[in-house]
Structure formats: structure tokens, C-alpha cells
Amino acid sequence: MAKQNRPHALMLPYPAQGHVTPMMQLSTILSARGYYITFVNTEYIHDRMLRSGSTKSMADFRFETIPDDLPPEHGRIQQIDELCKSLADNCPAHLEKVVDKLKGKSDVPPLTSIVYDGCMSWAQKTAIKLGVPGISFWTPSACGFYIYLSAPLLMEKGYIPLKDNSCVTNGYMEEVISCIPGIPVLRMKDVPSFFYDATNYMFQFLVTQSQAAMSADFVLLNTFDELEGPVMEALRERLPVYGIGPLLEAEQKNGLPNSFVSLWTEEKSCMEWLDDREPGSVVYVCFGSITVMSDQELVEFAWGLEGSKQPFLWVIRPDLIRGASAKLPTQFVEKVKGRSFFASWAPQMEVLSHPSVGGFLTHSGWNSTLESMGAGVPMICWPFFAEQQINRTYVSQIWKIGIAMNDVVERREVEEMVKRLMIGKEGEEMKKRICELRDASIRAANKGGSSYNNLEKILMEMEGKNR
Ligand code: UDP
């Protein structure tokens, strides 16, 4: 197709690893369907992408950058409320400038759609101004997104905000919330913790952003109908919502190159270490790109892993410990020599697909959950924040492909859970179920599958809208 005639999508990810990744995957898929892609990163994220050497899949896209208006030394994701506020205040004007710049380029086809992260909903206004469809892409699970969307209802029914601190200890957190159709297992403890306090900026930000999804032309989710059917059905009553995932599978099954861009440099040497381990014997331990924990929690995990006697590969990011650098007890390091590998950042998808890996101790981020499913590796879930709590409950209670850990880390529990996951019948059954879900996800993403068809439908409707 001549360049000028190609449909042109502007892609606007939220500036964090777990959001850039699925936006990149979607861009690759759209590009393979003939789209010209302009990918708009914040300067901070773009610089990190370049520095980590993740440029392999970037050649086909046009990249534009916008400032996030925070000082270079700012922690960004560690002070997420300040990042969100700065984006909400400044990004709309920066986006307008990018759009104007693109309009002035004779070698760039006219914009035909704006695909924006659900947390960057102000881009819908730009789409309306341009007269093109605005597509809100939510990167969490459908059940997670649905809880954000249900915040006004939870307030109306009096569940949130918490009345006082005693709620945390008096059993209230275990209370089942039955007012949200489609989510049968929701308890107070599954609701994002920033919902407990109505004055919390992140609460207000997410309520605003999720309610804004109602004005989008299309709402996309990185899930598939067969996985989250009842939730998708309930959502469809309120929004033009489509499951188009797992994008990871959609990419791979259509023969596209892996578009993963890492914001950290991957320690590839862990793959050689994995090569020398027994099949299915290694626990992969990784809490994603944002989770922080206390020193005490790190130590409890460490001794739990030691006690399990299983080999493990543990990702400890330099900023994993709240306000300090991670220090593992010397005695522990001595004891696990020979059956442990520590990395500051791993090639996670490759690690999970390695035959030596048999279990994943995870923070239940949605990308990590989908990647684990894609590799057929059952999980132990220790969620950190946002929708990760409800992901834990779905993984353990609905899909039965993992075990839910308590919020308080206790070495004996870690040890016992690793053993349950890695040795014996229970682990085998979870493995069997996760492989069935992996196969279902492949069917959904393949030609003729639900997610494939949903994307086709959206692209056709968009063509109609642009005509
Ligand atoms: N990741 C990685 N190497 C690591 C840790 C994480 O490649 O050592 C990737 C992981 O594969 C996933 C993303 O970072 O794609 C984390 O996203 P997720 O939604 O799981 O969690 P978040 O980081 O947003 O909390």
C-alpha cells in the first residue's frame, strides 16, 4: 500500500514498562495490517528504551517524544501520583503539538485514529477535534478494569472509603461484595488499596480515567472472551468493549517478531544457568517493574525459598527495597549457592518459556499473568497494588492456576507454597489447567478466534468511520 494511503494510528502509552509493552504489541499487530504507526513516548521512557538496547522492533514505527515535565531525578513510577498529575496537567497540550507537527509533514499519511492508554483519557478530546476514532486501551485484566469502573457504585453502597482503620483488623476486608455483576468473588481485600481513602489522588485519578472510557469510540482490553466471559458481558452492557488479547499470542501466532522493549538491560546469562537445571525444577521469582517491599519482606522470601529446597531464579531490581538497597543475609546466600541465580532484570518471557522453569512467584501484574499463562507455568501470587489483588483471586479461585499468598510475608508460608506448587498432585493439576488456558488463548488469538475477530471488527468499523 502506498504510504500516503495507509491508515495512520497514533499510539499513546502510559509511561511504564507494563503499559508500553502491550501498546508496542498492539502497534506491531496494526503495523502488520498495513497501519502507519506513530508511537508517542515520554522523553524519559524513550531514552530508557534506547539505553537498554531494545531497539530491534522499533525500526518500522515513527517515534515522537513529549516531556513528562518532571525533573530528571524524579522517581516517576515510585511517586506515581505525581507522575499521573503531571501527565494529566501537561500531556494534552504536548499531544496537540505532536498532532500539529504530523499534520505539517508531507511524507506522513493523515492520522486516522488515536489509540491511547486508558489512563491517558484526555487524548479522546484530541481525537474528537481531529474527527478520528479515539480508542481507549486498558492494559489491566477485564476484572481489574471493571472494579475501577465500579468505584462510584462501591461508594454509593458504602463499601468505600473505609470508615476507619479498624476495618483492616476487624474482618471487614474479607467481606464479600456482591453488587458488581460478573465478579462473584470480590472481597474488600481485592479492591485496590487506594480506593480505601477517597482523598487519595490515585483513587480520584483512576475514577476519572475509567469513567472517561464511556466516551471512547472503542475500549480495548488485553484479555479474551473465553477467559473473562462474565465480566466482558457485564462490561458490554455499558461500553463498546472488546477483548483483543492476549496480544502476546496474537503477535506470536501471526508470525510477527517479538516486539518486547525493555526499560532495563536484561541479564541474559540466567538462560545458561537455566540450561543446566532439571526440567520443571526452577521457581522464577519476580515482582515486575514497580513493586517495592520492605527489608523484612525480602528476608522472609529469602528464607522461604531456602527452606523449599527448590532451585530458584530471583529478579531483584536495584530499587526493589523501599528507600534502600536490597541486602540478602550472608548466611542465606551461602546456603543457596549452587541452586540460585540472582538477576537485576531478566528476559522474562524467555525465562518463563524455558523447560527448567516449573513455577512463578509473581506480583500478579497483568502482563506477567498472561506471560505465565502463555508459557503454561502456574503461579504463587503476592500482589502489590492496583488490580493485582483481584488478579490473585481470579488466578487462585476462578482459573485455579495458582496459589494465593497472604499479604503478610512469612517464610514458612513461602516454603510451603513453593512445595505445593512444585511438588505433587496440586501443582500438576494447576499445570494441566494453565496449559488448557494457554491453548484457549492461542485459539482466541489465532485467525477465526474471538480476539482476532474482535480486532477485525474494530478495524472494519474504523475504516467505515474514516470514510
Ligand atoms: N519484566 C521483564 N523482566 C523482569 C521483570 C519484568 O521483562 O526482570 C517484564 C515482564 O515480562 C512484563 C513487565 O515487565 O512484561 C511487567 O509488567 P506487569 O504488568 O507484569 O507488571 P508491572 O511491572 O506493570 O507491575
UniProtKB/TrEMBL annotation:
**Enzymatic class:** transferase
Task: Name the Gene3D superfamilies for this protein.
Answer: Glycogen Phosphorylase B
Q: What is its EC number?
A: 2.4.1.-
Query: What InterPro entries does the record point to?
Result: UDP_glucos_trans, UDP_glycos_trans_CS
Q: Which UniProt keywords apply?
A: Glycosyltransferase, Transferase
Q: Which GO terms describe its molecular function?
A: quercetin 3-O-glucosyltransferase activity; quercetin 7-O-glucosyltransferase activity
Keyword Transferase present in the record's keywords: the answer is: yes
Reading the lineage from the top rank, the first entry is Eukaryota
What CDD domains does UniProt report for this protein, alphabetically? GT1_Gtf-like
Q: Give the family this protein belongs to, as stated in its UniProt record.
A: Belongs to the UDP-glycosyltransferase family.
What is this protein's record name? Glycosyltransferase
